[in-house]
Structures are given as structure tokens and as C-alpha cells.
Amino acid sequence: MINDSNDNRRYTISLIMVAVCLIYIIRLFSIQIVDKSYLEQSQNNAYLRKVIYPSRGLLTDRNGRLIVFNKSAYDIMIVPREARGFDTLAFANTLGITKADFIKRMGIIKRKSGYSPYVPQLFMSQLSDEEYGPVSEKLYKFNGIYVQKRTLREYNYHNAALALGSIGEVSKKQIEADDFYQQGDYAGQNGIELTYEKVLRGEKGEEILLRDSRGRVKGKYEDGKYDKKPVPGKDIELSLDIELQKYGEELMNGKIGSIAAIEPSTGEILALVSSPTYDPSMLVGRKRSANFAALSKDPLKPLFDRPMMAQYPPGSTFKTAQALVLQQEGIITPNTAYGCQHGFHAGALSVGCHGHESPLNLKHSIQHSCNAYYCCGFRSMIDNRKYKNVSEAIDVWKNHMVSLGFGYKLGADVPNEKRGYIPNSSVYNKVYGENRWKGLTIISLSIGQGEVLATPLQIANLGATIANRGYFYTPHLVKKIFGGEIDSSFITRHNSTIDPKYYEIVVEGMELVMISGTGYYSRIDSIAVCGKTGTAENPHGKDHSIFMAFAPKDDPKIAISVVVENSGFGATWAAPIATLMIEKYLKGEIPKRRKHIEQRLLDANLIKE
Amino acid sequence: MDRRNENILNNIDIWTIGLYIALVIFGWVSIYGASYNFDDSDFWDFSQRFGKQLVWIGCSVVIAAVLLMLDVKIYTTLAYVIYGFFIILLIVTLLVAPDTRGSHSWLVMGPISLQPAEFAKTATCLCLAKYMSSYGFTMKNIRQMVVMCLIIFVPMLIIVAQNETGSALAYLALFLVLYRQGMTGIVLLLGVCAAVFFVVSIRFGATPIVDSIPGETLGMFAIMIMAVVIALSMVYFYYKDKTLVKTISILGVSLFAVGIIVYNYLDVKIKFSYLAYIVVGSLILYLLSQAIRQRKWGYFLISIFVAGSIGFGQVSDYAFNKILQPHQQTRIKVTLGMENDLKKSGYNVNQSMIAIGSGRLTGKGFLQGTQTKLKYVPEQDTDFIFCTVGEEHGFIGTTAVVVGFLALMLRLISLAERQRSLFSRIYGYCVASIIFFHVAINIGMVIGLTPVIGIPLPFFSYGGSSLWSFTILLFIFLRLDASRKEYMME
Ligand SMILES: [Zn+2]
Ligand SMILES: [Zn+2]
User: Fold this and answer.
1) ipTM of this predicted complex?
2) I need a labelling partner for B81 at 20 to 30 A (CA). Which of A49, A395, B95, B276 fits?
3) Cβ contact, residue pair B353, A21, below 8 Å
4) What distances in angstroms separate CA A106 from CA A99, A102, A115, A147, B82, one per listed residue?
5) Do A1 and B419 lie within an 8 Å CB cutoff?
6) What value, to the nearest 5°, has the Cα angle with vertex B378 and ends B373 and B381?
7) How close is the Cα of A596 to the center of ligand 1, in Å?
8) What's the pTM?
9) What ranges do the domains of chain B cover?
10) B397-431 pLDDT per residue, tens
């Protein structure tokens, strides 16, 4: 033994242990001997808790047309402990499977981790009303068989698959992150279904059933006193015009690309077409996983949400933004004219242009989409002495572009939005050395080529900003949540750094595009459309055709961007699709004069087999 | 067998071995009861959990025998190496372990999965014993104190990162050992106070003191009262200052008596927390004046304790509401019984108490328990194994288990005290403390006295890692004890 001054502490420690054990024994005495209520509870307190799933919120379009609603599905659950002694063959026949199937399924269930013969196990999932109806009466007779009702999605329109999204079984991660979910639950996995999952899902209810000491259900616990009714999810009115969406998808049929249409005065998204698309009902129910696998293997990538995620050089549509920035910076005025000899030529560097009169002022430069004009303007901005150096000039330029919605995520309520790309000074300083570059080095930015990238949504948003003469609202798909509020970020006005007075001349230029410029072929007689064609260079094949527009010129109701991949010049494919969409939205139908254009587009198949 | 081994066998402590065997057997019987299936059960079915547990027990016997054969010197020689190895193993586990219900603590090697966190306890005990028994170690050297705390906290933090908070908390039991070695008891007191205050401030953080008066919470109120009572006890215990204790007690009791009368009969809505603040304020002023007048630092420290307790209560309430994520908050709330999540922890405790309570004096008999078989508690044969004991063997069974563990812990302490080497004594206390912590938390949880923290009941709960690690922990000490006469250190 070692002697030390703390010897008596062995007694303190022993005393603590004795005290704790004594307290526990007293507690055990009280719950096991004194309190008789536990014995009573044990006799009638074996619960079976049944979750009652709430119905999910419905989705309607901006005109109140029902798009997404619910249908019932039934999971057949089996409690193996109770399911003994019934006629397996009869049971299998009822469900339309063989006895061998039954044995195989039971084998799989028993090998699952966390298997317990006393707990309901999923035997067969998602029977539809039609499948379940005839067997519901018969199933009742089998011991240990329970039915769990669930809700699945059903669609009135077979459009807008990616924007709407789908629901699927929760992943392990989702269960861990949110106590709401249990294994086997469904939750939104993409699109609106994911973004607004918490709004749409509602609250689960619960039914407590009583079981006897052998586990058989004896009825409701205390007459359902503790049952909880499910609270249905909140309905949502989308900003989509589902008929317009449907029309857009028809026009884009046989083409790869996207349409994004926005109401400029609110930022509400009217249509969001990603092409090729698929029928949203493909991802419902038992066929979901097989269809999902097939879609994700499709080389045309129908699961890729092009209007939100595809990033293209915006091409000539970007010239409108350049015209705004150059004016704001005092580099040009509406009267500034630059000459164009079939393009911009500086030493060895040449940027071609098509034939048109020369020189052009600002308005006509937009009308004819003159490359030389923007090369000259951009160059004189970047090399301008009013900035400390080229770095400052490009950063000023970048900040203006960001204020027009480029370079960062807009923050729409569709998951997976991409940010596009607007380079800043440090990018070029890294490549060429600190300020050892000039306007000419990065001249392709001036015409929306080179490093700059934008999503179709950002291009449509530029259209909306010009339509509004200087501001935009973050594009969003949800117009109204019944019994809730939409995010305040969607009703916050974003002013651009460009003075509103500089917009009018750009608007006039865009109007000329349609009257007698590159968009002439796609004009609409009865509506003053303002548009801008564009072509995105594609190093991998034929260029992408782009068109940005809004209409009418005064008090605009719709701003739109259309991208048709690998189809060449913007005026050929993207422009007519955009004006048809505008006409459809504003007039409701296409006049006879333009029916042949509509037909040509509906029929065109640009996807190489 | 050579003489040395014979010698060991003669010196080994029969009492401890006997208690160990009794607990392991009773544990296996309980697991058999918990996983017994009314219909198809084969005693020797090794695919069933009770069959597997039999294998784990067999292995434990081998492990115990090997440990008794080993030369006793390796534990002192290799203590640091073993500790280092386990720290690395814990980190590796954290990085490579697959996600098992949110925790990253299992190393899977083919059919076997092991939880290094369980074994790291033994390594930490060895390391701590070695460090604290080393020449020149004193509780007064700050640098040594820091190292000592690091030895405990480093593995603890890694295990928290593995998301096994329960296992990690067991390391706190080692503070009992530090106490035995001379650490001031105030640390234990403060630790217990902090835990209790935290729980109280969360548990009653939204409960009004009186229903009709919003804006003041029972949590803060209770903390103030507890802090005053503890402070008065300290004053009485250390200074026998009866005047102070009397004055403050009378002030407090009369204030609240008046308050209650005013509230009930005059219907004036006074704030009771203000009364508590008055009591606390006067106590602090009184303590400070005593500190100055009598030049005793103790008074000053006690006043700091009172003020600190109130600050701590505020901070923990704030930290809980503002810093923790909503789902973490929910988990803690469920643990404290605030949210009736009958599906998860709350349900388990409710059901386990029904199971135990329904056992009555003698229990329903072996394999006759219905509650433990029909309910949905997933940890039926691991963390909640004590339920089966309660249901099938009644109060007699549960008391026997509690007394059995108490006997084992007291025996370990008396063995520890008879050691001639400081290393062995410290290690012995480590073993007793860790077993104590597990028993107290596990049984306390099952009978609704402590929060639901998932840690196994030593020797009882199903699982190789748990059984082996406790076997190793215990038998290393028995080996040290067996050679206490020949083995002298320093
Ligand atoms: Zn012209
Ligand atoms: Zn030109």
C-alpha cells in the first residue's frame, strides 16, 4: 500500500458508488413493486403505430390549371411473427404472384439489416388503386398483413418535367439531416418538388393501435385519443403558363436546347423548356428506378436542366449589354459611329462582319449586329486613360455585367442553377501578367464570345432587364403559396448599375432588328417585338442559335430567350421559335400568315440520328 | 506450467473472477431471452445473436487467459506505445469507417466489425496510469496537468467526431481517478453543477414559473435557487459561518413567503425571478463583504461561483437556441423528455420502464417476457438489455445485477488500494470508474433517471467489441494485482 494524504478519498468514491446504486434500487423498487400502473400498461400497452401520410400540396399554373395532383398507392406490409399459419398459396394468388415469389420475397426481407419479425416489413410496394381495389377485401382475411396508404404524384400535363421535379424515396443523407423522414418515405428529389419540399409535404399523422401480448391488433388505443391527424401540404400556384410551356416543348421537339420566358414586371417564369424532355409521369411509382436509369443513360441528356444549367457564350445577344455599359461609362453616345469594312481589323487580328452600310451609329449597330462596332467600343473602353489601368477597366465592366444578372447564380427557386461566367482582371493578369494585356487581347468578349458564359435563364433575364429599362426581379417559378408566403428575395427589385436613360436607344435598336434587321423573317405584324439574334460559337460542332426578345415594346409582358443547339445562325431557328412563343402568349393563337413557319418548326428534326 | 504462472494463478483474485463470470452468464441469459423467438429457436444456432454472443464469450475466455500469461512489465513499458497506436487507429477509423446509422466508428474486416473506441479506453487508462505514476508527477504542475487532461480529451474528441458521443462521455469517468490522486473535489462539484445546470436550463428554458406570467423561465429560476443552496452549503462546510447562512435563508424564505401571499391573495402579478435576483444579489454582496473583512479568498470564490452559475445558465440557453442546428436541438429535447417523440428515444424509455415495471417482484420467468419481445426497441439486446432482466427476473433480478456491479466496483477499489505500485493503483481506479460510469448511465437511462446516451452495460450487452474491451480492461488489472508482491515500481 502506498500512503498518501488522500487516502480517505477511497471512501468518498466508494460512497458515491454506493449512493448511486442505492438510488437505483429505490427507483427499481418504486417502479417494480410500489407502482402497479406499469403492470397494467404492459397488459394493454403494446402499441402498433401506424403513420398516416398527409396528402402532398397540389401544383397549379398561373391560370389555375391543375398540373400535379395526388393518387393513392398502397404498400403491402407483413409482420412475419403474426403472419404464421395462413394459406401462403392463397395469399400469393391474391396478389398475383407465385408461391415461389412469395418465398423469395420473404427470404430477402429476412436478410435485411434491422429485420424484426415483430415489426411490419415492406412486402410489396406501391400498388395502384386499380391493383389494390380488387384485393383489398381479401387481404383483410390474412393475419399479419397490413396496408400502408401513401400518396404518389399524378400529372394532368405531361410537360415541364424538370421544372416540376419528382418525388422519390429518401436517401440516407436526407434521413440523417431531417428527423421528419424515416426509411421508405418519399420526398422531392429535384425541381419544385425539392425546393418547396417543406411546403408541399405537410405533417404526418399517426394512428395508435393496441396489440395483445401476442401482438395481435385489438383496436384503437384509448379510442384514438392520441391519434394525430395528418396535416396536408400547402398548395402552390406556379408562375408557369402550362399551355405556353406545352407549346414551347412542341416547338422544341426534335431540337436540343431551351426556352426561358419571364414576365419582366415580376420576374415570374412563364415557361422553362429543356429539350429533349420526358413525361414527368415516367418517374412515378414502381417504374421510377428503371425509367430513371434509362433517362440518365440517354446520350441526349434529358435529365440535364438546360435553361438553368447549360452555359453558352451569349454571342451577339450580349451586344445589348455592351451597348448599355459603354454608354454608362461615357465611351459612346447614341450618335457615336464606327466604320465597318466587313469587320474589325487591327494588325494581324480580324473579326469578320457581314455586309451592311458603314459607318453605323449605336441603334443601327444593334439592328445589323455589327461586330466592328462593339470591338471598337469595347477596345476604347478597356484601353481608356480614365481608368488607372486595364485591370480597373475590366473590373468596372465586370461589375456592370454582374448588375445585369450575369456571372453569379440569379437565385431562382429551381435547384442546380449554374452561375455562368464573367471574367475579371485577375484571370487575365494570371494568364498574361499584371496589366500586360490590353483591349485587343480580350476583344472577343465584346461580341459575347471567348471566356464569357451565360445560362439561357440569364439571357432571358437580360431581356427582362432591358424591357424594364433598368431593373429585374429574381426569376422564380412560384407565384403563390396557399397559406404561406413566397421568399422575400423574389419581390426585391434589383436595379442595374446602368442609368435607365441609356436603355431606350437599345430598345429602339432591338425593335429595328425585327422591323428590318436580322430578325425580320420572324416579325409579328400586330405586336411591337424587340429582339436580338445571336450565335454561340461551338468548338465541338455547328454553332448554337440564340435569340433574346421581349414584347410588346411598351409595357412588356414577356421576355424570352431561346437556344437551339447546333443549328447555326440565331435568325434561322431560335428567332421564329421565340416570336411564336410571344404571339402564343400575347394573342393566344398563331395567325394564318405565320402558320407555315409554325409547321416548319414543329416538323423540324435537327437531332442527328 | 512454470512456477511464475502457478504463482499468478494462486494470487489471482477469486472474488473478481467470480463476479465477472456471474455477470457474463447472466448477461448471456438475458440476451437469449431478448432475442428468443417463440417458434424457431435452436440453442446452438450461431447465426442468432445469442449464438454469436456465445462465440464472443468463448473468445473472451481465451483473451483473459492470454492476458494472465503475459509478462506484467509490458503494460508499463508499452503504455505510451499502445496509447499512440490507438489514437492513430481512432483517426484512421474516423476516415475509413463506413456510415453506420450516422456514426463512423466501426472498422469492418470481412465478417468481423470492431469498434476501436471501446478498446481505446483501456489504452487511455494505461497511458494515464503510466503518466501519473511517473517520477516527479504532481498535481501542482500546470504543464503536467495539461498533458494529463490531453491524454483524456484527445481520444474523447476523436470519438465525438466519430459521432459516438456516448462512448466519448465515458472518458469523463476518469476524473474520479484524478480526484483520488489529489485533484481538488471542487472540479467534480463544478462538473456536476455544469451538467445539471445545462440540463435544467434547456429542460425548463421555456417553462414559465407561474403560468399566468410570461417572460421569466423556471430554468433560470431553478438554477438561481440551486446556486444559492450550494453556495450556502459551501459557506457552512468550509467556514461554519452560521450567521451568513441564517441571514440569507431567512431573507430568501420570507421574501418568497411574502411574494406568494401577495400573488395569491392580493392578485398582484409580481415576478418571482426578481425576488430570486434579490436573494442572489444580497448573497453575492454579503460574500464579498465577508471576503474583504475576513481576508478569506474562499468567500470571494464562492461569490464567483454564484455569479458564474447564473452566467452559465444564460449562456447555455443561448448556445442551445442559437448555435445548435434544429435537428440537434430536437435530439437533445427528445433526450430530456421535452418532445414526445414516442417513436424514438422517448418511446424506448417509456417502453423499457413498462417492461421493467411489469416484472414485479419475481419477474415473469425466463423467456416469458412479452414486452421485451413485442416492442420495437432496436437496442433490445444491447443498450436496453437491462429491460429483459427487469421483465423476466423482476426486482430480485435487477437488484441482484445492481448489487453485483456494486460489489465488483467496491472490490476493484479495495484491490486498487492494496497495490504497492502507483501505476497499478491508478489503473485499478480507472477500471472501477469506467465500469461505474457505464453502469450508472446505462441502468439510469433504462429506468428513466439519466438521459438516453447509447452506451452498453458492461459484460451484459450484446456485442464482441464491448465484451472484449471490458474483459481486457479488467483482466489487465487482475494480472497487475496478481503480481503486486513481486512487482515494485520506482
Ligand atoms: Zn441600317
Ligand atoms: Zn459590321
Assistant:
1) 0.86
2) B95
3) no
4) 11, 6, 11, 17, 47
5) yes
6) 65
7) 28
8) 0.61
9) 2-182+342-489, 188-323
10) 999 999 999 999 999 999 999 888 889 999 999 99
